[in-house]
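User: Can you help me understand a structure? I only have the sequence.
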Amino acid sequence: MTTMERRPDSRGKVRDIYDAGDNLLMVASDRISAFDYILPDEIPYKGEVLNRISAFWFDKFADLVPNHMVSIDTTDFPADFADYGDYLSGRTMLVKKAEPIMIECIVRGYLTGSGKKTYDADGTVCGISLPAGLTEASKLPEPLFTPSTKAAIGDHDENISYERCVELVGEDIASQIRDLSLTIYKAAAEYAATRGIIIADTKFEFGVIDGKVTLIDECLTPDSSRFWPADSYEEGKVQPSYDKQYVRDWLKVNWDFSGDAPQLPAEVIEGTSARYREAYEIITGEKFVPMKSK
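Assistant: Let's start by predicting it. Here is the structure, written out as tokens:
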């Protein structure tokens, strides 16, 4: 069976979630979202790349922070999902159930995107004052924790101050997710540098499992991060990237963001898919081979 006929118990922009008793099955689809819109086209292999990159980082940082991953091996999945093995293979993670903390934990190491816009306007990023003289792609003096609210599908995330984060989730949780986010980012950035990758920024999500703050959802993927090739890095210009920036750039030129999102040209779809697969290979050091064809 190559498709999933069973309805998910919940659905996000990219992931479908199925209840699996004590655990959940988190399925990364090939859907792509940009600017908080779900686009009509799918990106081949995208879901599998996201899932397997997350699994790589969860394994790598298991001693640094607890995470919700149980397995990505379909033989470990509940028996009632056995008929869907071909579809689930590679793109699916069996995870522990968690009580989600409704904060997007963004860490910025470089000045770009929305941070660059606010810096140009008033010298701040998410209300944090920065030194004068920074430009596009400047490395920040220290990585910044810039939380945002976690919006429902169709709504937009809203940047908030750390103080507002404390008001929403309490000082104890806020300080833990801030410190863990910065710790993971710094460790990942150090590792990525050995692979020729700059992690410009990224987003983490956390939940509580058995009373402990735990890393959940995805981790350091091309959907949640900006990955830049280090060998072409040049401060002062927009960097090429191994993420969906290719799609964002095309949409900015070809859509006025009214009505339904347009279909993507074939070359944008394939170019984006190639970037995702290349990101996997560079980060993991392994050639990307789809799991169901192994």
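Now, to help you interpret it: The chain is about 30% helix and 25% strand. Residues 109 and 142 are 7 Å apart (CA to CA). Let me know which part you'd like to focus on.
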